[in-house]
Amino acid sequence: MLRVTSQTGLRGAFARQSLYSTQKAFAKRSLTSEKVEPVTIYNGPLANVAKKLKLFSITSLGLGFGISPFIFAIDVPVPFVAKAALAGAAIVTSSASTGLIQWVMSPYVTKITMPSNTKEDELPKELTIHTLSFTARDHATTVPLDALGPASRIFTSWMVTDPTLATGRIGAKTAKPKTLLYIHPELCEEEGIMKSITDHTGVGKGF
């Protein structure tokens, strides 16, 4: 009788332990599932175009370097100096076009998100601004709202006034944050969070 009672007590202890473990795992899973993603408040209408242009510029640069050795391999009665000039022209042209596209498209903002816990009647304390890296990957720069100000360079709207306050990442890797950014002015004229943000940062209709 005593042996049966002991076995029953052990089963009860194991059952309580199993129930506790199950409840703990369920609570952890619930907390994970309740995690809310950041709120997107801006989408760049030319995001796909900017990405394709960057990819095209990188491809053309690679082709420019790739075909250069074949110019010297072609058996034609052309002096070596002429072949070298032709190869140099191909590399310089592709490099210049790639550099120009990167210079123009690097500040282009594809998306802006803010923390989901921001109240409706308040401005977000920080923004995560998405642009494109040199290889057209998503480049996220997280910066305090007060560290954004109007930029004076052409093809830009914002600048990060204090880069030490900003953090950047490309995928899961840490990267240098972007300091020059461009957003479309026509998307920030209507009443809403983006108009409030642009007014707060001092960016006017002329950007």
Q: Can you characterise this structure?
A:
The structure is a single chain. This protein folds into two domains: 39-45 and 107-201, no CATH class; 47-105. It contains four helices and nine strands, in the order αβααββββββββα. The strands form two sheets. The protein has a six-stranded antiparallel sheet with strand order 1-2-3-4-7-8. A three-stranded antiparallel sheet has the order 5-6-9, with no helix packed on it. With 207 residues, the protein is an alpha+beta fold. The protein is 45% helix and 18% strand.
- The total tally of domains equals 2
Shape: elongated
How large a portion of the residues is in β-strands, by DSSP E? 15-25%
Mean pLDDT: 80
Strand order of the largest sheet: 1-2-3-4-7-8
Largest sheet: 6 strands, antiparallel
Give the number of helices. 4
**What radius of gyration results from the CA coordinates?**
28 Å
Number of DSSP-assigned strands = 9
Helix content: 40-55%
The quaternary organization reads as: single chain
The ordered string of helix (H) and strand (E) elements is HEHHEEEEEEEEH
Poorly predicted residue ranges: 1-8, 10-34
Structural class: alpha+beta
Distance between the termini: 88 Å
Q: What labels would you give this structure?
A:
207 residues, 2 domains, 3-stranded antiparallel sheet, 9 strands, elongated, disordered N terminus
Question: Concise description?
Answer:
By secondary structure, this protein is α+β, with helices and mostly antiparallel strands.
